[in-house]
């Protein structure tokens, strides 16, 4: 099977889900947006729910890859690395809100379709944050990471002004980092 065709289907699914929402999108919508027949689409995804899960997996995997790269940025201070890691989560949410009035439905952690994926993404992101904090926070790294991820999730509640949560994330990270002991060799 062609990865290019699956990519086209998932891009079409994103377009349809952001335009119509998951509930109102049909396989006919996805097939038309992909420029394929329904039977051709069914060769790559089982149904609309499968397309949605695969798309969510891809979005989360991309955000996690960006977060891991940010955490490993050479020469960056702990604060800069943490901000960059958490910014990947915030920017994913902002992108969905920018692209769709159905963003709340697409991001709903309680949904039966992707609730487990949201939980796994949050857990893995928290692991990345804890790893970025390991030198500075020591045994408290996981607890501090939990607080920072919770802060980021809370900032996603009101995105009417996208610059406000971005600024609050910078401020929140700076406040948390200011309370940590300075790690040896950490450029502040």
Describe this structure in a few short sentences:
With 188 residues, this protein is mainly α. It has helices spanning 3-20, 27-34, 38-42, 48-71, 78-99, 103-107, 115-137, 141-155, 163-178. The protein folds into two domains: 1-45, Arc Repressor Mutant, subunit A (Orthogonal Bundle), CATH 1.10.10; 49-178, Tetracycline Repressor, domain 2.
Description:
This protein is mainly α. It has 2 domains: 1-45, Homeodomain-like (Arc Repressor Mutant, subunit A, Orthogonal Bundle); 49-178, Orthogonal Bundle (Tetracycline Repressor, domain 2), CATH 1.10.357. The chain has helices spanning 3-20, 27-34, 38-42, 48-71, 78-99, 103-107, 115-137, 141-155, 163-178. The longest helix has 24 residues, at 48-71.
